[in-house]
Amino acid sequence: MSTLAPPQLAVWQPLLDDDANGHEQELDHKDEHDPYQYGWRERLKRLPNGEEEWIRTPLTLNDVLHPRPGDFRVHTEEHERFLTYLYNVLAAQVSEDPRALVMLDTRIGWDQRGIRPHSPDISLIFNVNKRRNWSTFYVDKEGTRPTLIIEVTSPGTRRLDLIKKLDQYEQVGVAFYIIVDTFQPDPDTPRQLIGWELTQEGYVAMPKNERGWLWLKPVGIWLALEETRLACYNRAGEYIEDYVGMMHARKRAEKRVAAEQARASEAESRASEAESRASEAESRASEAELRAAEEARVRLELETRLRDLEEKLRNS
Questions:
Q1: CATH number, domain with residue 85
Q2: Beta strands in 21-130 (DSSP E)
Q3: Where are the alpha helices (DSSP H) in 60-103?
C-alpha cells in the first residue's frame, strides 16, 4: 500500500456561531427529567446537629466546560471506547519519548488570565520534566502545554466543543485541536472529524485526505471516523489495532505457531518412525548378510568335505 502524504493547510471558515443554522436545540439541550444528565459533584455538608453528610449536586454546562477535581461526568459507552482507543494508540506512538505524556480526561490549568481550567478528553503534551499523578496539570508550573487536544462530542455538550473550547483553546495556544463530532441530525448524515491547527493568524482548518482522514502531525498517524468506529492508521494506511484487536491477533498468531509446532512435531515423529524402520531394515539386512555368509561358509565346508570324500573313494 502506498504511503499517504500529509495534507496542506487551508483557511478556516467557522462551522457555526451562536445563532447559525438553528441548531440551538441539538447543540445545547437539557433533559428536564434527568437532573444528572451531565454528571454530578459531591460535597460534604455540616448539618445543624453537627453531623456531616455528602450532598450530590447536578453539574451544569458551565461545570462541564470548567470542571473541578472530583466531578463525575456521564459518558456513553461509545465515548469511553473511543477515548480508550485514542489514549492507547497515542501513548504507543510517543512511548519512546520519556518526556511525552498522554492524559485522559485530566484537568488542565492554563496560564492565560481569565481562562479557567478545562478537562479535555485527550491531551498530548511534550517536554514534561517530571511525571506526577496530576489531578490538575498546571501549564505555568510545568513549563509546557498540550500540543494536541482531542474532544469527542456528546449530544448535550456538543456546543462547548464546537464553539466555547475552540475559542479558548486558540487563546491558550493549543497547537492542534481535533473534534470527533458524533452528532447526526439524521441517519443519512455522516458523522465527521473537524481539525484546527494554530498559526500566526489563529486557527486554520486542517483538510482531510481523499478518504476523509485527518493527519495528526505531532504523532505521525491518520485519524478516521468510520460509522461506529474511530480508527487510526499509520503512514502506509495500515490500521492500528486496539488492545482487543491486538489480543485477537496474538491469539491467532499463537494458534498458528501451535499448529506449525504440531505439524513439525508430527513430521519429526514420522521422520523418527521412518528412521526406526530404516534402522530395522538395515538390521534385518545385516542379519541376512550374516546368515548368507554363514550359509556360504557351511556350504563351502560341505563341498570341501564332499570333494575330499570323493577323492578318497577314487583312490581306494
A1: 3.90.1570
A2: 39-46, 52-58, 72-73, 101-104, 107-109, 122-125
A3: 61-65, 77-93
Asked if residue 9 lies in contact with residue 206, where contact means CB atoms within 8 angstroms, the answer is: yes
Instruction: Name which of 174, 208, 175, 183 is nearest 194 in CA terms.
Output: 208
Residues 248 and 222 in one domain: no
Q: Greatest CA span in the chain, whole angstroms?
A: 151
Residues 145 and 161 in one domain: yes
Range of the domain at 246: 241-316
Please report, rounded to a whole number, the percentage of residues in the chain having pLDDT higher than 70.
Answer: 87
Q: What is the pLDDT of residues 97-107, one digit of tens each?
A: 999 999 999 99
**228-243 CB burial, b ≥16 within 10 A, e <16:** eebbbbeeeeeebbbe
Give the count of beta carbons closer than 10 Å to the beta carbon of residue 13.
7
Contact assessment for residue 107 and residue 69, using Cβ atoms and an 8 Å cutoff: yes
**For position 248, what pLDDT does the model report?**
59
Domain finish residue from 240, 261, 287: 240
Q: Look at the alpha carbons of 158, 159, 163, 166 in this order and tell me if their dihedral is positive or negative.
A: negative
pLDDT tens across 244-281, in order? 665 656 667 677 777 788 787 888 888 888 888 888 88
Nearest alpha-carbon partner for 209 in 195, 199, 197: 195
Q: Is 81 helix (H, G, I), strand (E, B) or coil?
A: helix
Specify if 196 maps to a domain. Answer: yes
Q: 52, 156 in Cβ contact below 8 A?
A: no
Strand, coil or helix: 46: strand
